[in-house]
Structure formats: C-alpha cells, structure tokens
Amino acid sequence: MTITYSNPGFSDDERRSHLYDGQVFLYPARPESRALIEFAQELIRKAFGALDPETAQHDLSVQKFAAILSELKPRFIHHPRAKELLQALLGSFGCDAEKTYFDVPRMRSSTSDNYLTSGIAYAFHPHRDTWYSAPLSQVNWWIPIFEVVPENVMTFHPRYWDSPVKNGSHRYDYYEWNRTSRFNAAQHIGKDTREQPRPEEPIELEPRVTLVPEPGGVMIFSGNQLHSSVPNTSGKTRFSIDFRTVHLDDVIARREAPNVDCACTGTTLRDFLRVSDLERMPEDVALAYEGGS
Question: How far apart are CA 42 and CA 44, in angstroms?
C-alpha cells in the first residue's frame, strides 16, 4: 500500500527508508525548485517563440512540434545551469553531497488527446523504472514546470508494490538499448517501435494514487513503484522535469526496495554523478551490478 506524505520533516535517510517501503512524498515548491522550473520555462518559451507552449500543439504539425522538442530537450538536459540548479535543489532536501549521486535532469512532455505519444513525447505505459536496469535503491523525483491537473499527470498503481507483474524486462539489456535505441527518440512519430519492457498481462489500473503538485512542487518515489502516464485529455501539453538519485551507501549495502519481478541486465549506475563534484559512480560499484537485477 502506498502512503503519501505531504511535506514531512524526515531526514534524507529516513525518507529513503520510507521510499523503499513503497511510500510516496509530496513537497510544496521551494526557492530551489522554483529556480529550476523558471530556467526550464525560459528555454521552453524561447523554443516556441510567440506560441503558448502549453497550447502550441493546436497550431503546429506533429512533425514541427516534435522537431522543436528534439532541440529543446537536449538543450535543457546538457545545460550546465540545469545541473547547478539540481545540485542546489538536492542540497535543500538534506541530501549528502558526497554520498548522493544523480542522473541528468530530463524535460518531459505529454501532449493532449493523442496528438503525439511516441518517441520524443513517449506516453509511458504502466512500468517500474527497475525494469529498465535501474538499481532497486533508485529514487525518482518529478516536478511540473507549469500548472498540471489530474488529467495530465502521472499515477501510481499501489497494489503492485509487492505483487509481481509478468513483464518483458528479461529481454531488456541497458547497454543494447544505449547502442540501438536511446538516441533516436525523435524519429518515432506516430508509432514507437523501440523494444521496451511493458506488462505482459492485464493490469488493474484501480485503485490508483494520483497526485497533482503545484508548479515547482516535488514528488519523490521509489523507482520500483509501478506508475504510468495518465492519458492526457486536458487540452494542454504538460511539461515536467524528472531525475533520479541513488545514495552510495545504499547501493553498496543493497539497502533497497524489494525485487518482485525485475529480470533485466546491465546497469544505469554509470550514468550517475556525485552531487559535490559531478564525478561518476565508482567503477567497482557499478561492476557489482553487472549481473542485473
């Protein structure tokens, strides 16, 4: 069962313990998260020019919209300012800068009414991030850039926290994904043909837990939570930021969420950067995960 906390006073160690037990946290916007979304808003508005980015899908062809995203998203992901703002945000949450590692913050978009649901604007089916070679100690952070509503956010399926789902993770190797599929998302318009782990049995979508953070509000959850994109019927494109963290001590000690159904190979650990100095995860630590989940 998922229990949601709003603005709890837990330390980072306590928070991670609750996350590994299946709980979800929601925090109000704070100066550091506002700074991050304001930077993202600046890039988004520049990319869409005179158009309102939340409604631009009604004025542009799918191909033109996808072309804008294919330039906008990498610009945000790889911008040094995005990393700096993320480092400050994690510091405000009490994360140990010497032990906490993060992957680059990604800008996501969810268009309305099936306008664009593949490739650069992939609409995620129910999944766990751990199906994609993420460590079971991974913590996910999700922040809306503009206002969101229940019709365009993401949702959790808590009955599956400790119940297995038949899925395709046994066919997923992270290194093969990087070699063949990771960098061509913008080519998939209309239909996404990339092989990705997904449920291979019917999923009971109810009960579900759907949270609606304010712009700059921060939702934190385990990468092992089964979650999905709510089909966007809001009439507006949703823009959000997500990134992931791991704590070095947890990775080494295997202090983590339970593995109920992950069978992927490879590891994403080499993608993570230390908060203090952007050094990568030590190679010996990543090697210990080479066998997969």
Answer: 6
Q: Where are the domains of the chain?
A: 4-287
| HSE (side-chain half, CA atoms, 13 Å) at 14 | 7
Residue 44 neighbours by CB distance under 10 Å: 24
Q: What is the pLDDT of residues 49-73, one digit of tens each?
A: 999 999 999 999 999 999 999 999 9
271 in Cβ contact with 289 (< 8 Å): no
| Cβ count near 6 (within 10 Å) | 10
Q: Which amino acid is at 174?
A: Y
Is 127 exposed, middle or buried (CB count within 10 Å of its CB: 0-12, 13-18, 19+)? Answer: buried
In the numeric block, the tokens 């299946």 are attached to 22
Across residues 102-111, what is the average pLDDT?
96
Q: 219: closest CA among 272, 154, 126, 131?
A: 154
CATH level 3 topology of 4-287:
Jelly Rolls (2.60.120)
Find out whether 4 and 23 touch, Cβ atoms under 8 Å. yes
Tokens 């782990």 -> residue: 197
